[in-house]
Structure formats: C-alpha cells, structure tokens
Design brief:
- By secondary structure, the chain is an alpha/beta fold.
- It has a single domain, classed as Protocatechuate 4,5-dioxygenase, Chain B, CATH 3.40.830.10.
- 33% of the residues lie in helices and 16% in strands.
- It is built from eleven helices and ten strands.
- The strands form three sheets. It has a six-stranded mixed sheet with strand order 5-2-6-1-10-7, sandwiched between helices. Strands 3-4 form a two-stranded parallel ribbon. Strands 8-9 form a two-stranded antiparallel ribbon.
- Helix 1 packs across helix 4 and helix 5 (146-156) packs parallel to helix 10.
- It starts with 12 loop residues before the first strand and ends in a 6-residue tail after the last helix.
- Its cofactor is Zn(2+).
- Belongs to the DODA-type extradiol aromatic ring-opening dioxygenase family.
- It holds the Pfam family LigB.
- This is Extradiol ring-cleavage dioxygenase class III enzyme subunit B domain-containing protein.
- InterPro entries: Extradiol_dOase_DODA, Xdiol_dOase_suB.
C-alpha cells in the first residue's frame, strides 16, 4: 500500500467525546486514543474548538492571549481542580474566525470573558499534552438545529488548509441520569449501540438530511440526548471538513455504561488516521 504524504492533505476536522470531567484523571481507552490522534496528525498552527459548555445566543470567539482554564463542574475529587492547560491563545486567529463568520452572515464577535472550559481543555490535555499549540474556543448556539452548526463548520472549513485544526468536543451519547457513576467500565448500554449504528449507517450512505433530522428518526435519540448540545458539535465537525463523507470512526467504547466516547475524523485528511492504528 502506498503511503500518503501528510503535507499533501488538509487537516481533518475532528469530533471528540469528552464524557465526564473525570476523563482528565481516568484516561481509560479514550485518553490513549486522543493521544494517538495528536501524535499522528501533522502539528497544527492553531486549534479552534467548540464546546457545549460555552453557550451563547450568537457566536463568540475567545480572544485571550492566555486563556484561563475553567473548572466548570462541582463535586469531583480535589485533584481535578488543580489541573491546568496553559496553552497560548491566538487573538489574531480569533478575529480571523469571527470575520469569516461575519462574512457568512452570522453576527460573530470576539470575547475576552471566557477561556477554556472542560469540554476544551480535558481532551486537549491528551491531544497536545505539551500545551504548546495556540487554542481559541468558539461558543455554541444550542438553540439552533444541526444544519446551523454544519453551516458554521462550513464557514470555517478553509482554515484547515492554513494549518488550523477544527475540533468539535461533545459526547456521542449524553444522558447523565443513566450513568453508573460507581462503575466506569460497566460496558455498553444496548440503546447507545443502536444509536451509534444508525449514525454509522447514515454516514456511510452520505445521508446528510437524515443525520440533520436524527432527533425524530434515530433509535433512542432523545434517551441518548435529553438535550442535544453535546451532539451539535458533531455537525460542526462534519461541516468543517472539505468532504464530510470521507470519515474515520475511532471507537473507544463507553464509560459509566451510557456515555459513548466515540471520535470521528472528517475530510480527505481523515486518511491520515486510517493509515495506521490509533491507540485505543
């Protein structure tokens, strides 16, 4: 098999599941998988990450030179609150992102009041543990449908050719009421596997409209996502690809029984991850 030169392909866009904040100290299979992605892809010039934990009515782009780490959770072990991710920010990139969104008709603005919440810094600790790649966070509009988030991704997709990694961080399934909180390794809930298989089938078929309407047609959709903010970032990642139908599914199983921790790489650059095994 011939190899593909890394510099001949744009960076893929990524959807990663960050699951529980405990991922930061309990890597399980997901931590090594994310580390393998970061080690396999060409080093990006910067990262734009969307997390469901920063919700705004219109797009906001973090423009801090040194983004603060936000421990936006409660009731966890003290060690979790001591973790940091001192990556530099990228104010010029933030303005570039905001302008692209404005050019596409969205009322985007830069914002210095947020930082990096756990949906951003927890997976990034595994993807780029040296915290030496500039990062900006883009807010989520959870009141908007999947098609809107796909459009946001489309407006930013050209950044991949500039060496910018576009990441949607969420959770492939996210029903906190069904967690087995004392058993992180309790296996897969059957209804989450049925939901995953439906997505994989529709992705393989290139059926974007069905995916956009997943909430009314996918099996156990509302059970897996009582609210859908943790899956909307998947549609951002799809839109951010040069060709979302070219994709690689990276399976790291479930945690706490009902949190699927799947990751996806979209676009022609996803072949970089298909060429060699990514640790899981």
């Amino acid at each position: 098999m011939s190899t593909i030169a890394a510099d001949s392909l744009p960076l893929p866009s990524l959807f990663v599941s960050h699951g529980s904040p405990m991922l930061a100290v309990e890597p399980g299979r997901t931590g090594p998988l994310l580390a393998g992605i970061g080690a396999t892809l060409p080093r990006p010039r910067g990262i734009v990450v969307v997390s469901p934990h920063w919700e705004t009515f219109t797009p906001r782009v973090g423009n801090q030179a040194k983004p603060r780490v936000i421990h936006d959770f409660g009731g966890f072990p003290p060690a979790l609150y001591e973790l940091d991710y001192p990556a530099p920010g990228a104010p010029a990139l933030a303005e570039h992102v905001a302008q692209r969104l404005r050019d596409g008709g969205l009322p985007a603005h830069t914002d210095g009041g947020w930082g990096l919440d756990h949906g951003a810094w927890v997976p990034l600790r595994y993807l780029y543990p040296q915290a030496d790649v500039p990062v900006i966070q883009l807010s989520l509009q959870s009141q908007q449908p999947p098609a809107y988030h796909f459009q946001v991704g489309q407006l930013l997709a050209p950044l991949a050719k500039e060496g910018i990694l576009l990441v949607g961080s969420g959770s492939f399934t996210h029903n906190l009421r069904e967690l087995r909180r004392n058993d992180a390794d309790s296996g897969d809930a059957p209804h989450t596997l049925q939901f995953l298989q439906w997505f994989l089938d529709r992705m393989q078929a290139g059926d974007r409209d069905a995916l956009f309407g997943y909430r009314t047609t996918a099996p156990h959709a509302v059970r897996n996502h009582p609210s859908d903010e943790h899956l909307l970032t998947l549609f951002f990642a799809m839109g951010a690809a040069d060709d979302w139908t070219q994709l690689v599914h990276l399976d790291s199983g479930s945690t706490y029984h009902s949190l699927r921790m799947d990751a996806f790489a979209f676009g022609t650059g996803s072949r970089l991850l298909a060429q060699q095994p990514v640790a899981a």
